[in-house]
Amino acid sequence: MNFDEKKFSAYLANKDFITEFLYFDEIDSTNTYLMNQREIKDRILVLAEFQRRGKGRLNRKWLANAYDNLTFSIGLKPNLLPVELPYLNFYASLSVAYAVEELTQTSVETKWPNDLLLGGKKFCGILIESQFEENRISRSVIGIGINVNQTLFQDEFKNRTTSLKLHFGTIFDRELLLAKVIGKFALNYWKMKESINSIISEWKRRCRTLGEKISLTNGKEIHTGIFEDVTKQGLLVLTQNGEKIFLNSGDVTVIKE
Fold first, then answer.
1. I want to staple 143 with a disulfide (CB 3.0 to 4.6 A). Which of 125, 127, 225, 256 is the partner?
2. Do residue 61 and residue 175 come from a single domain?
């Protein structure tokens, strides 16, 4: 069933936050669409039922069934410095987590750098792309994919991927969920910089791998050690052979003793 914009608008508490809503039945990618526009409105929301070239982290494809999920992007002109860009990832992750928790009364976990988990399985991913001018962020696009009512996944993903319907055994109202996510995002967006320490603390409290022995794979590089911390800049702090190293990307796997 197609996404119902009127229903979404009726659910939306912070109606003034979104300045424009664009809906596509099919598109290459909501992120690509916004990044390719010469100019965008601040706080524009673009949602597509199906993305032909949906993007995940590290140039991976984001695969999602049409009409079952939420694949959308929020275009922003944030008052942030380039070094503050990771703030958006922490903030967006918690906005989705809070929305799902409000609807389900179940805790959501974070996974570095940009995933959300239920029962140890991924149900949401976030990809942020930005443009810069004169040492400022002129445009940021936050792409969010949430597995909502999809129940079948490709074999390579099915053992580590879930959806809200699979986890909770019930169909979810996509319009209500998106309204909750946008509402949580809008709530303290203007105070994000001032609240970043508490935002990061809350993100870390939910991170199931923090403090664990992990391996981090980035291309051909593999690092092994204790996952000690995450910095304000979104770097993973790994203690390896008594030395702290700082990593900005990769796939984390817990090493079970």
1. 127
2. yes
The pLDDT value given to residue 159:
82
pTM of the model: 0.94
10 Å Cβ neighbour count for 225?
Answer: 19
The CATH number that applies at residue 224 is 2.30.30.100
Task: Tell me, rounded to whole angstroms, the distance of Cα 229 from its chain centroid.
Answer: 19
- Among residues 185, 184, 253, which one has the least CA distance to residue 223? 253
Task: Please check whether residues 106 and 177 belong to one and the same domain.
Answer: yes
The string of pLDDT tens digits covering residues 21-48 is 999 999 999 999 999 999 999 999 999 9
Q: Indicate the pairing of strand 44-51 with strand 20-27.
A: parallel
Q: Say yes or no: 86 and 128 in one domain.
A: yes
Q: How many domains does the chain contain in total?
A: 2
Mean residue pLDDT of the chain comes to 93
**Long-range CB contacts for residues 167-172, cutoff 8 Å, separation at least 24:** 167/118, 167/119, 167/121, 167/123, 168/104, 168/106, 172/103, 172/148
Reference 141, options 256, 24, 21, 45; nearest CA is 45
Query: Are 193 and 219 in a shared domain?
Result: no
Q: How far apart are CA 200 and CA 230, in angstroms?
A: 8
Q: How far is the C-alpha of 211 from the C-alpha of 195, rounded, in Å?
A: 24
For residue 201, the enclosing domain spans 5-205
Read off the pLDDT of residues 110-133 as tens digits, 9 standing for 90 and up: 999 999 999 999 999 999 999 999
Q: What would the pLDDT profile of 69-82 be if each residue is shown by its tens digit?
A: 999 999 999 989 99
Q: Are β-strands 44-51 and 221-230 bridged in parallel, bridged antiparallel, or unpaired?
A: unpaired
